[in-house]
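2024-03-11 09:14:02 DEBUG pipeline.ingest accepted 1 chain
2024-03-11 09:14:02 DEBUG pipeline.ingest length=438
2024-03-11 09:14:03 DEBUG pipeline.predict start
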Amino acid sequence: MLLVVLSMALGGGGTSNPQTEMILQVLTALVVIPLTVAPDWQRGLGKISKTSWLLAGLILVMPVVQLVPLPPAIWQSLPGRAIEAQALAAAQADHRWMPLTMAPSRTFAALLAMICAVLVMQQVSRLSIGGRNWICATILVIGALSMLLGVLQLSHTGGADWSLYDQFSKGFLVGFQANRNAEADVLLICILAFGVLMTTRLSDGRHHTVVWIGILMGTAPLLIGVLLTGSRTGIALVVLVLPMLFIMLAPALRIRGRTLGWLAGTAVGLLVVASALTQLPAVGKVIDRFSLTHEARWDLWVDTAYSIRQVWPIGSGVGTIVPMLEAAERLDTVDPTRPVRAHNDWLEWTLEGGLPGLVILGLTLLVVGILLVRAWRAARGPKGDPVYRAQVIFAGGILLVTALHSIDDYPLRSMALAALAAVAVGFLLAPAAAQRGH
């Protein structure tokens, strides 16, 4: 739980705000030490499975291999390294051994961030079903605190920006994140975590009217929070998350006239609230963002595709997107801003890893896909646990939201969202047996 709290509170700065990430990496190491070397701290936790170690290897192998120094004859023959070789030759330093990555310091920084996510995945995978519910509760609490911080950001209480970072999406609800898109994903994940907790409450088979009211009152503020982030894709993904929430709660639903009345009333209420919100200036600014007249992402994708061709099939190295885009930027698109990401994480990974990176990505997706299918079959069987079923839907929902938002953004470049994706993968691994007694 502490690992998740630290990741969500300190991991949202991204590469533009590395200070909190450095603090998070040190604290993560300190928290993991007792969980790995102190027997008393490991009571009730399962063992780290072989599949978890396999996934850890697949996730970390690319930056590790890219940091291995190579002799001059090899690295100078790689695509895209001719100018670098000529510059070193002019300085009479072309005899140096150099790694595959074209920016070793950036790749090493990325490796440290990826290690933190791997550690979260492995520790979460050791929990029982009940322990994983506590993780969902933790995610929901931090998400609520993030929304409260976002209210201060929108209101400019005391004349302050109320952000943890120097560079952030000003004028929008970002909470503990620097990027409004990342905050939208966090709140969408909170909706799914809320569904797991409510499924647990409803799993006794009784009709809990108060709980249903709580579900409606708890989901609505999170949806409003997603709207106030101004994230276009995040708002669109609500259409995906709400049906998944309904599927979670479906086994506990009793299709009665009263239930249908509640659902119809809720739909009408949400429409009334939505129409009222459109009159607010903050919401009007969000609506204006859906105009695609000036979409800079298209230019970034063109420049990224050009960069891919320059270094194919080896890739430029994990974390090298900024120098690669600066070198490839067309003169007719140059402006005072600096390209930070490709705004398409699938495209950016192809640039960083080349063909080997795509092979590793494919293997990782295959393993995660097999885990998801196995977990779903175990959860929906005749003896399946409805709470475990909800946890599997929660995990699948996180991965699906992350994958879809990666088409036009970079959620996994946030250590906070990378940790939540790691939580999802940990939930797909077999839970530990429930512990009884002390």
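2024-03-11 09:14:41 DEBUG pipeline.report The mean pLDDT is 86.
2024-03-11 09:14:41 DEBUG pipeline.predict end
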